[in-house]
Amino acid sequence: MNLTDEQMDRYSRHLILKEVGPEGQIKLLQSRVLVVGTGGLGSPVSLYLAAAGVGTIGLVDADVVDISNLQRQIIHTTADLNRPKVESAEAKLKAINPEVKVEPWLLYLDASNIDNIIRQYDFVIDGTDNFATKFLINDACVLAGIPFSHGGILRFDGQTMTVLPGRTACYRCCFHEPPPAKSVPSCSQAGVLGAVAGMLGTIQAAEALKFITGAGTLLTDSLLSFDAKTMNFRRIILRKRPDCPVCGENPTIIELTDSEREACGM
Amino acid sequence: MEIRLNGEPRFINAANLTVAGLLEMEQVPSPEMVAVQIDGEIVHRCSYHDTMVGDSNQVDLLYFMAGG
């Protein structure tokens, strides 16, 4: 594959990065990334992936655009109210970069459909708003061997980690199991600063681009967390746990099951 | 004793302290909201009352965040 003159112009700022260059750009153009959730995190993630020339972007969301989304879900506009989020997002991604292929999945992921969907992609972004789906994505990606980025936000805080299944700590190595229902407030209950979604989502997008191009070192075996009130960022070193229920030596999770989805109201 | 809590030095005016006691001291509204890591090892949620925090331990409280 050779880059066209237009691609040389469009991606010129990537091409002059020695860690990306034409080789890295071609990898991006041939790559497939799945963004689960087209909300606060999925908005900046998918915008940056499309701008970067990720060849195929899958978008998963069964929701429609609500006016309370617009404070942070920057891919949607007031004119998109009541429109399916994946449709609204697809239009913006196409407008930024017409050569990107967008695959909309107008559904919620569950134990019966997730494996078939994630196996079609090279990297998965968790931009979901509930623990059930976050743990489902972790388990499905670990079992299928698909690398992914975990992301979570609440109030002024954000956290993210990148998981290379079988090689680095997974979400369950740290968080083990979903917290009991109602023990952790949701964003609709506790709020979230809109820009925090952008901060965290942009880190996730950068991780996806690094994974595909091979640039730098990934945010693996660690949890990056920040507090936007103080702008303190902290990287907590994690270990892949031998007793992890899904990626450990004697896993108890060997197939996927659904737990109740408690939406964060994102 | 002195521990490092979330990367910051913290003097604890007690000789014995469980993880549950620390969470209470830190006013964590519910122990289920956090994963607790001591010196790189995750403490299982059901042993917060039996696990002691010791001098110079590095304790990380990792909050669950579902928002996206």
Describe what you observe in this structure.
- The complex is a heterodimer of chains A (266) and B (68).
- Chain A is of the alpha/beta class and 266 residues long.
- Chain A has a single domain, classed as Rossmann fold (3-Layer(aba) Sandwich).
- Helices cover 34% and strands 17% of the residues of chain A.
- Chain A is built from 10 helices and 8 strands.
- An 8-stranded mixed beta sheet of chain A has the order 3-2-1-4-5-6-7-8, sandwiched between helices.
- In chain A, strand 4, helix 7 and strand 5 form a beta-alpha-beta unit.
- In chain A, helix 4 runs parallel beside helix 5.
- With 68 residues, chain B is mainly beta.
- Helix content of chain B is 10%, strand content 32%.
- A 5-stranded mixed beta sheet of chain B has the order 2-1-5-3-4, with no helix packed on it.
- In chain B, strand 1 and strand 2 form a beta hairpin.
- The longest helix of chain B has 7 residues.
- The radius of gyration of chain B is 11 Å and the shape is globular.
- The relative contact order of chain B is 0.31.
- The model of chain B has no long low-confidence stretch (mean pLDDT 94).
- Classes of the chains: A alpha/beta (266), B mainly beta (68).
- Chains A and B meet through strand 5, strand 6, helix 8 and strand 8 of A and strand 5 of B.
